[in-house]
Amino acid sequence: MAKKQFPSSEKEWKEILTDQEFYILRKKGTEPPFSGKYILNKDKGVYVCKGCNNNLFSSDKKFDSGTGWPSFWDVISEGSVEPKSDISLGMRRIEVLCKRCGSHLGHVFDDGPKPTGKRYCINSTSLNFKKE
Q1: What is the pTM of this model?
Q2: Is 49 a catalytic residue?
């Protein structure tokens, strides 16, 4: 039997995540703008999912969007995240989930810089950073 890489039940997630991490990653919450630890991070490296360590975003695709959340113009590789339609809060948005463990990361918008025109607006709480 293969070793489990991350929890399979919400109860197990609750045991390994802090209250804020559980609220954001599993209950689709959002951290307050300008409160996350990675907004001003300029180090080179890779941002990974807090839930399963899946590689998500490279520091070379990060930009200052002025929105209060870490923003990226592209993912690290095709298939690292899963977009999902989100019509909560009376808005039409595209939610960004970790493709491996299904954790909520943030949302993606079509107002980012070239070459993609995308702005992946991601909660710092949903990330860990592996410095080069």
Answers
A1: 0.93
A2: no
